[in-house]
Amino acid sequence: MTGELSPIDKAKFVAAKRAVEFVEDGMRVGLGTGSTAAWMVRCLGEMVREDGLKIRGVPTSTRTAELAREVGIEVITLDEAGWLDVTIDGADEFDGKLNLIKGGGGALLQEKIVATASDQMIVIADVGKEVETLGAFPLPIEVIPFGWQTTKLLVEELLINMDVLGREVTQRMKGDEPFVTDEGNFILDLHLGRIGNPHQLSMVLNQMPGVVENGLFIDICDIVVLGYGDGRVETR
Ligand code: 5RP
After folding, report:
1. 32, 41, 123, 153: which has the highest count of C-beta atoms within 10 A?
2. Angle, nearest 10°, between helix axes 198-206 and 148-159?
3. Please, which domain of life does this record's source organism belong to (predicted)?
4. How many helices (H) does the chain have, and how many strands (E)?
5. Any catalytic annotation for residue 111?
């Protein structure tokens, strides 16, 4: 499954490999999105095919759903699952309190719904994702297309009163077209540099009409499994 891996891929792989040890027979598992989460889905698929592990997976994106089916994981919806035993997902940044920025892959809405509906959320990350203060990675927010430019202006105005360094807001693009999420929405990336009060920012953003969800995951993650390029793994 792995062949010769670059250090970054090795870090992602070893974190994923360790995290799937938390998954037991019969569990309903939230399946994250992104390159690290893809390793986790492949590892789980191997356990299903070769060890007879019986799980049902709730994917957080169409990309992950396709991969999960491809590797042999039974895919169900969150409504069919009702509740999940564990979700394993990647992150763009995590801090010492295990608060996260997610949404680099544009799947933050389903990811947050799924993680919140889980007994446990495990984040898998390479060591480059660890930060003292969140915000160097642009914070994604999902906004509905209707009036998105007005929403963008209102978000820029709102940021004036927030404890952040930068205030630039850009629309995420895919080539020449706006990036469209699985839910048919747009993504705005907030270039904040440093987020002094993630809890407050998350609450204020979500109060704005037009904003569906933001990529700050506060008090949701329980464990971070951190992989290094030399194959070491640490748990936070
Ligand atoms: C997708 C996400 C991803 O988990 C996050 O962007 C990390 O991705 P990668 O593992 O590829 O670095 O939040 O919306």
Report:
1. 32
2. 150
3. Bacteria
4. 7, 16
5. yes
Q: Which ligand 1 atom is at minimum distance from the Cα of 108? A: 14
Whether the model pTM is above 0.90: yes
φ, ψ of residue 200 in degrees (nearest 5): -65, -45
Residues at the binding site for substrate are 33-36, 89-92, 102-105, 129
**Ligand 1 centroid to 93 CA: how many Å?**
9
Count how many residues are written for the chain: 236
DSSP secondary structure string for all residues of 94-124: E-TT--EE--TTS-HHHHHHHHHTEEEEEEE
State pLDDT tens for residues 113-128. 999 999 999 999 999 9
Instruction: Give φ, ψ of 214 to 5 degrees.
Output: -120, 165
Give the Cα separation of 68 and 156 in Å (integer). Answer: 38
Regarding the beta carbon of 32 and ligand 1, being less than 6 Å apart is answered: yes
Ligand 1 pocket member 103 (CB < 6 A): yes
Residue 234 has pLDDT above 90, yes or no: yes
Element (H, E) at 234: strand 233-235
Q: Does residue 132 contact residue 167 with C-beta atoms inside 8 Å?
A: no
- Structure token pair of residue 127: 């060591």
Backbone angles phi, psi at 16, to 5 degrees: -65, -45
Mean of all residue pLDDT scores within the chain? 97
Residue located nearest, by CA, to atom 1 of ligand 1: 105
Between CA 144 and CA 231 the distance in angstroms is 41
**Count of Cβ atoms closer than 10 Å to residue 78 Cβ:** 18
CB of 140 sitting under 6 A from ligand 1? no
